[in-house]
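Reviewer 2 asked us to include a model.

Predict the structure of this chain.
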Amino acid sequence: MPLPDRAGRAPERADPADVVEVDRIPVTSLAWTTVEVAGRLDEIRRRDLLAAVVATGRLSVAELVAVADRGVGIPRRPRVLADLGSLGPHFRSRTERRVVDACGAAGLPTPEVNVVVPTAGGRSDELDLLWRWAGLDVEVDGLHHLEPGQRQRDRQRDRDLADVGIDVLRIPVADVDDDLDGVVARIARKLGARRDDNDDRRIRTLTSRQRRDAS
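Predicted model (structure tokens):
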């Protein structure tokens, strides 16, 4: 099934948060278009479309759920929400769920859970908790990560992720058990620092362009 590759002209029922302007024409976001198209399909094709879009990494389950939640005009909205709920997040441990729940309770954005991303050398890695917009991966490490061989593999993996712009914060399970609030605070600081770094890079890029245009 072909995936939506662009937004459609915005209907009146679209939420203002899901409408952008392209060449001064209001169009719906890719997320809204995806959810609306999914609502018009039969059950099998609807689930295939949503799963395929999430698999591309262009949109997360959380982003699609947020759009469906506010999109009162979306066809078969309850069924779309139910299908999205079946897609994830897929936690591999109760500790991962505790961290995500605690971050949500603290008002932090929801990460993607156990998502696969391409890394250096044509490989792919599954990341525990990914805040894609911040380029931050939080790994919840069990005891086997203390083994010498595993530690070496982890260091190489962290370098590979750094090469594609993803910073890794490793948190032992013991830290989650002993001081969950402290873990959330560390994540919050990292997210804030990554946001500031991204803002600085955008400012430097804009300044460089302005200098080139002026010369």
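The mean pLDDT is 81. The beta strands are 19-22, 25-28, 112-118, 124-131, 136-141, 167-172. We have added this to the supplementary material.
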